[in-house]
Amino acid sequence: MNAGWPVELHEGDVVLRPIRARDQREWQEVSRRNRDWLRRWEATVPPGPAGLAAGPRPTYRQMVRYLRGEASAGRMLPFVVLYRGRLVGQLTVGGITWGSMCSANVGYWIDEAVAGRGIMPAAVALSVDHCFRTLGLHRIEVCIRPENSPSRRVVEKLGFRSEGMRPRYLHIDGDWRDHLVFALTAEEVPEGMLNRWRSLSSGRRPRN
């Protein structure tokens, strides 16, 4: 079981909380309205052997059941992002690995209508602090397509370290796509990621 789950994380108007089955109407409305904004960055399933087509996309409820099962097993933290009480996106901490690695990856998307307001940097900062300080993970990684400038700005604002390119790393929007790798270890943010973001967003230099 995941000792750090379920959890609700807050920073001003930004809240991370577990995704729920009853979020379906609101989640689908936001997803539908942002279809063109998000399609270029959405994961897809490659064709099977001999070019066989991939199966149908899971329904919302199937997705939630899968995410909740992974969370219960300690492999994932599936959050929705709320801004002023309204669902505006999703953030998932996935690939949680223990043992000698103690690492995870973070993926996220946000409603275009509220992009650029500092919501996602705050959400990522909340999740990183939870992973490092509550779960005890050591490394967080974010993989982003080079063309995805808005997503890159999030990790660059927060001071993630660039680790280079992974060629044809994930199947996105119907093909294998290159991804840039950004990462942080717990030692690189001794002040806490949220404190770093607060300092950056207020124009102060973060203290080490």
UniProtKB/TrEMBL annotation:
Keyword Acyltransferase: yes
Pfam families: Acetyltransf_3
Keywords, comma-separated and alphabetical: Acyltransferase, Transferase
Ranges for domain N-acetyltransferase: 14-187
UniProt keyword annotation of Nucleotide-binding present: no
GO molecular function, one term: acyltransferase activity
PROSITE patterns: GNAT
EC numbers on record: 2.3.-.-
Signal peptide: none
Protein family per UniProt: Belongs to the acetyltransferase family. RimJ subfamily.
Record's protein name: GNAT family N-acetyltransferase
Species classification: Bacteria, Bacillati, Actinomycetota, Actinomycetes, Kitasatosporales
